[in-house]
Automatic annotation (TrEMBL):
It comes from marine metagenome. This is MGS-like domain-containing protein. One of its GO terms (cellular component) is cytosol. Residues 8-96 form the MGS-like domain. Transmembrane segments: none annotated. One of its GO terms (biological process) is 'de novo' IMP biosynthetic process. GO terms for molecular function: IMP cyclohydrolase activity; phosphoribosylaminoimidazolecarboxamide formyltransferase activity. InterPro entries: MGS-like_dom, MGS-like_dom_sf, PurH-like.
Length: 96
């Protein structure tokens, strides 16, 4: 659980994290931390491979969205399942 200052310092539980980075330094340690606090990890191809090589449970974003990467892998996370989670307002879009 983390404290979020924008939510009147209420603790919120992180259920899922999307990890997709170009510079992979420190990513294994971050993913291990998330795994230790029971956060489900979603990731794109290259990052997923590194995490799987370290036996960190990870779900490929294409499996989550049921939509493959397109444009030679340049488009991976543009999907309503992902964008909605990023852009949605917790109190206003719960049913969308």
């Amino acid at each position: 659980m983390i404290k979020n200052p924008s939510l009147n310092k209420k603790q919120i539980k992180i259920a899922r994290a999307l990890i997709s980075v170009f510079d992979k330094s420190g990513i294994v340690e971050l993913a291990q931390f998330l795994e230790n606090i029971n956060v489900e990890i979603l990731s794109t191809g290259g990052t997923e491979k590194i995490l799987k090589d370290k036996n960190i449970p990870v779900t490929n974003i294409s499996n989550y969205t049921q939509f493959p990467e397109i444009m030679d892998g340049r488009v991976k996370t543009i999907h309503p399942h992902v964008g909605g989670g990023i852009l949605g307002l917790r109190d206003q879009h719960n049913d969308d």
